[in-house]
Amino acid sequence: MAKTPIDRSGTPLVEMRDISIAFGGIKAVDHVSLDLYPGEVVGLLGHNGAGKSTLIKCLSGAYKQDSGEVYVNGEHAQIENPRDARDYNIETIYQTLALADNLDAASNLFLGRELTNALGFVDDSAMEAETRRIFQRLNPNFRKFNAPVSALSGGQRQSVAIARAVYFQAKILIMDEPTAALGPQETQMVADLIQELKKQGLGIFLIDHDVHQVKRLCDRAAVMKNGELVGVVNVDDVTTDDLLGMIIAGKKPGVAAA
Amino acid sequence: MADTTTERGSTSRGNIFKTLEIDTRLLGMVGAFVIVCLMFNVLTDGRFLTPRNIFNLTIQTVSVAIMATGMVFVIVTRHIDLSVGSLLATCSAMMAMTQTVWLPQYLGIDLGSPLIAPLAIVVGLLTGAIIGGFQGYLVGYLAIPSFIVTLGGLLVWRNVAWYLTNGQTIGPLDDVFQLLGGIAGTLGTAGSWVVALIAVVAACFAIWSARRSRIAHEFPVKPVWAELLIMVIAAIVILGFVYTLNAYAVPERVLARQFEASGQTMPEGFTQGYGVPFSVLLLIAVAVAMTVTARKTRFGRYIFATGGNPDAAELSGINTKWLTVKVFALMGILCALAATVASARLSFHSNDIGTLDELRVIAAAVIGGTALAGGLGTIYGAILGALIMQSLQSGMAMVGVDAPFQNIVVGAVLVLAVLVDIIYRKKTGAA
Questions:
Q1: pLDDT in tens, B35-57
Q2: B313 to chain A: nearest residue by CA?
Q3: Which of A27, A140, B44, B316 has the fewest beta carbons closer than 10 A?
């Protein structure tokens, strides 16, 4: 699949410099630096426990790194918690689908940022209307606006999570295995959506296990092993075997430095 | 991603309850309550459903029902509060000491001053809020399980109350304060009808404006006849309730004493109904405020979101620790309100006030459909739960069931109610 080249001459959207974090003596992330440019999708590959999710949680505010800095649009960013991350227009779609199962789609979409009326009360009708509007674009077949999200399928739940990121105009999107729980059709929907968001100039970190999917969707791939960054490569310069070699053996193919 | 479910508002199923959008669980609880009432009415030869007994039942329920509304929030956020009975005692002791000792002795505000009651209540509310908030801090920020914090609180606050009063019964309480106790302060028949009419108009307006809002956003709405039917049902319930309370006539000797006190003679055949007690008005105000909080405020939304998935709530930027503090502080404030009603009803503060209330309050919330797993619960359910518990208790007392059997039945009913709820949820596929 031909990809339009990414302009990496300007300021990166996100720059993570020398990030380290340890849990009880185990170095989960060990001096890792990674950047992301507008309109770019960077895949994060590695075994379970390689440190991909941990690294990305330092960006989304779920963890605080022990050392290292994060820069957003070239400016030093203090991200202490998920609220700070949102202030930097960083939205995260978690593997575990961080949704409150007992609430409906609209309540989840606006969770933490409810629309209120003049009296300061939450305006459910307005939120439902906005939710219907955004789903018209993302998933026109969606009908269960008044059911708790526990009644939704995996793909529908995923689209609620994605709708949340899209609605609030994320600049930086973190997707932690967004298609892990989805069927082929729903996976394609997410893939199309990623291309659409890319066109709008978002930067996306995509954590995934599937090297084929990373090759198809991403511009660059960063491979981690045992908390360390093995290397960052342009996916078009490497084969899936090269990527697998990086994941399993931790060896960077000599030809494909990015 | 094909959806097969029809949208809400579709009437193709032909089920009347679906069309009316009435919660079937609420219907089940109302049904259970009606059955309990009718059963006791038969067993007591019609003494159970007299205006007098309904009046008493209502004012006996108020204190537990007020606390049960707060317990809904606590349980919905996956916590528990075992200290409410003891906290009620501490608030009651603070208010009793304020009005009988501290204000008159240290601030020179004489007994009988109109300032006594409001100041005492403010002291009580502050006490409840601070203690509740402190327990919430221990749970939220220091991550001590709420079961342990409030189990400790159960012992601590019961005995703080004891210490404050040296174990003495404090009374009589201020006359104005006692107005909140129930029979000592009622609206009278005319005032009650005015309140009833206002309530009917407000209910109809709320139903209608909700409909207008849905129409404005082009959402499906119920047929007009369904809306009207619900309005009529609401009106009948409100007016019937007030009619019943108004029908409970003040005993002749009490009236005679009142006339004597004002130096008049009572006209022949003079009667007067009690009407709605102030304590019941307080409960209604609490119920409305708590329901609005649950459904229409961010605070309420966050309570339910945190109960449904604490991690998701935290990741959505909700400060769940501070939320826990607020929920427990609110519980404390409601304990103070309940303490006002309970001690005013007794007309004194006693050492054992509120004993075992924590169990009644938790039982009321749970019978009312609050799930201990968190995330689910309604205010009206908890109040109905409190009413069912109180009906069982006083009904059995009227029938003459032995005291041990009364508690055995109440305990069994609690377990049975939860079982029925579990089966209901499995059948309907609700979470």
A1: 999 999 999 999 999 999 999 99
A2: A100
A3: A140
